[in-house]
Amino acid sequence: MEGLSLGQLFSRSQATLNSLDETRLASVDPAYQQLVMEAIEQLQQADALVTRLAIFSSNEFLDDINANDLRFLLIPAYLGELILKQTNGERRKILIDAKEAFHRFLSTCQEHQLIQKQDLADLEASLEDKQRAIPAAQQRNEKIARYRREKAAREKLVQLRDRLLLSESRQTKDAEEDDDDVEREIVIALIDIHILKSLEHLHAIQQEMMMVKEMEAMQDIRMQKPGQSTTEDDRVPTGLNSAWGRDKPLLSKEGRPLQPFVITNKRQQLTDQVFRPGHNLPTMTIDEYLQQEMEQGNIISGGGKEPEKQEVDDENEDAVDAETIKQRNWDEFKEANPKGWGNRGNKG
């Protein structure tokens, strides 16, 4: 990078950032991280040149800055985005460095009256390292409004670039003057887009920093008592009373955390509930069930083999006559009621 001008450093890092947003490489890929580090080094060198040359002054208005220098206001914004793309190193330091870059970019835009009034509240809250106490519905509406603003700015950017290409093809003096105005509008549109992106990044950094602090607190507790193992389902710090986390609400009405909290892991319990059969599984065998019913007196015992039919005594004439009459009546009944007579299927 030695011998490169400020414009060359800026253009190369800008092209690298755009290529990283479109690449198919994973963020953890060494080739991806190599491009990130190269672009960060280029932007850091460009940032140092801007400071050394004193290109910007806090008492300058937007109209006092030419279009060629105006684009260098984007250096801290690009630097913050690239820092967040890093996967190597301590996450807390990455978040702090990116946050500092976004704050510097937004503060500079505020000095030159490039930031809108509705974004000042978010900027002031991020500078004070606190969340805005506004209802969730209002937060959602503001987020939708920022999304629409960014979409409109991107559409305007495409139109301006098409207009610039058309103007360059004419190659007249008036076209050259028009090109300067178009290039200036392109840079202003880019700055507006990155103002919105920086505010979203700061909000995400604030939420992730809370998680990082919780993880670091848990690690400190484990380091203080290295002899004790922490299971997945037992992550509540030891040494606290049984009412830890119950003496007051975890979140305020606005969704702000009021105290540190730990999300316990009940993965196995949830897995058992999800992958269990749809029916209730038996808890005892049939023999065990019958034994239990018998002990409770729900089964009547008794009975036995059917008694054998008593033979008629041939010498007892009355008994013989009674048996004969019985058999005759049974034969008459069978003749009057043939087999299958009561079955409707046999009637056709």
State the distance separating the first and last CA atoms: 104 Å
For the sheet with most strands, the description reads: none
CATH architecture field of one domain: Alpha Horseshoe
CATH topology of one domain, by name, is Serine Threonine Protein Phosphatase 5, Tetratricopeptide repeat
| Class by SSE composition | mainly alpha
Total number of beta strands = 0
Strand content: under 5%
Which bin fits the share of residues in helices?
55-70%
Order of helices and strands: HHHHHHHHHHH
Radius of gyration over C-alpha positions, nearest whole angstrom: 43 Å
Provide a count of the helices.
Answer: 11
InterPro entries: TAP42/TAP46-like_sf (IPR038511), TAP46-like (IPR007304)
GO molecular function: protein phosphatase 2A binding
GO biological process, one term: regulation of dephosphorylation
Protein name: TAP42-like protein
Describe what this molecule looks like in 3D:
The chain has 348 residues and is mainly alpha-helical. It has a domain at 55-224: Serine Threonine Protein Phosphatase 5, Tetratricopeptide repeat. It is built from eleven helices and no strands. It has helices at residues 6-22, 30-53, 67-70, 75-84, 91-111, 117-127, 136-168, 173-224, 267-274, 286-295, 317-336. Helix 5 (91-111) packs antiparallel against helix 6. The protein is elongated. The chain starts with 5 loop residues before the first helix and ends in a 12-residue tail after the last helix. Mean pLDDT is 79; it is low at 232-242. Pfam families: TAP42 (PF04177). Residues 311-321 have a biased composition (Acidic residues). InterPro entries: TAP42/TAP46-like_sf, TAP46-like. It comes from Phycomyces blakesleeanus (strain ATCC 8743b / DSM 1359 / FGSC 10004 / NBRC 33097 / NRRL 1555). Residues 323-337 have a biased composition (Basic and acidic residues).
